[in-house]
Amino acid sequence: MITILLRKCALLLLLLSAGSINGFSMIVESGNTIVIDHSTTQDIYLAAGTVIINAPVHGQLVVAGGKIYINDSVYDDILLAGGTVVINGYVGGKIRCLGGTLKIDRDIQGDLVVAGGDISIEKNAVVSGNILASGGNMTLYGKVDGNIKAAVGKLLLYGTVGTDLDCRGGSIELYGKVMGQTVLAASNSLLIGSSAAFNGPVRYWAPSTADFGTTVKNGQVVRDESLAIKGNHWYFLGAAGLLTVLWYLATALLVIILLQYFFTKIFHRAGEKIYDSSLRSLGAGFLFFCGVPVLIFFSFISLIAIPIGLILLFGYIFSLLICGSFTAVVAANWFSTVMGSNARFWEEVWIAFGFFILLRLIFSIPFFGWMLFPLLVCIAFGAVLRGINWKRTAAGNKVAEGQTAILQKA
């Protein structure tokens, strides 16, 4: 039941994040492993542990999965969220990707917008559009016809940038070519290889003066103090850092919409439970967060109950991932109860989104926020648990009454 619910939520999240949908010509699937091995002209929406695309897709492709392999052509846009993403096929549109590891080995006709831990664009790949990237490491062996704006921990450039390069990061090493203007800001180190070539002016900042030698063909090299990175905060990283923050807030908003839409009554009752007794909700939430790991542990050591343990583990991790949005929705319903108003759906959503931002600000406060945030999350989860109607259904009660009557007659 939990697994089915999570898959449905993931698919609905994908549908919403993909934007407006024209008509109903689409393929929607979820499961542990999904393999697309036949050509299709429809849009595809997938959510699975492993997704493999082995046939051409002439529509949009929207995927969420632990491992995603695209081995054939996709002629429209791609939206991806996965732990490992490998693109071995031609892409006719743009790519938007949130992934731990992204590897691209074929041509992309559109833009590439990516936030990931490790980004690698291989030698055979040509990106005809622009790249906007935020991640841990970025390595470019191929060619980018447009410009690159990146905020990364480390940039390795061996290929060619067709227009401008703007990179803010920890370490930057350049061995390739930049045909336009170059802006570099490195908080740790900046290394310019002898094979590098800059066909435009260069502005840079690094802790120590970088030696560009004869690599600058046109223009001058200027060490610009205004580019200095004085901290490791996202707001020093420019557009790519802002992209990550906006992506995060948009995802939180989508989760809030789903929770409020599908579980309106449960969250409304949860708000009432907090209003009546927040201490009981705190106790129930504390038991949930402490008790479920114990159940998971015993499920795994019992061997027989391992499938149950895996479901509990997945559900528990999912709960931790959405705890901020979850708590915000409960807080919004509590607020409506306190104010005695019957807020409409979208009013509840925006109130919850406001609470979400407030919760993130609270969590950013050292010590006080770190203690208060878990307490609020426990209260929210406990209130929902108390708000769920755990009583047997009417049909179940009738069956039980019938069984009792039969036993009495016997």
Q: What general form does the structure show?
A: globular
Number of helices, where a helix is a run of at least 4 consecutive DSSP H or I residues: 9
What percent of residues adopt helix (DSSP H or I)? 40-55%
Q: How much beta, percentage-wise? A: 25-35%
Helix-strand topology string: HEEEEEEEEEEEEEEEEEHHHHHHHH
Average the pLDDT over all residues and give the rounded result.
81
Strand order of the largest sheet: 1-2-3-4-5-6-8-10-12-14-16-17
* Distance between the first and last residues' Cα: 36 Å
The largest β sheet comes out as: 12 strands, parallel
Which stretches of 5+ consecutive residues score pLDDT under 50? 1-24, 233-240, 392-400, 403-410
Pairing-aware structural class of the strands and helices? Answer: alpha/beta
State the total count of DSSP E strands: 17
Rg value = 26 Å
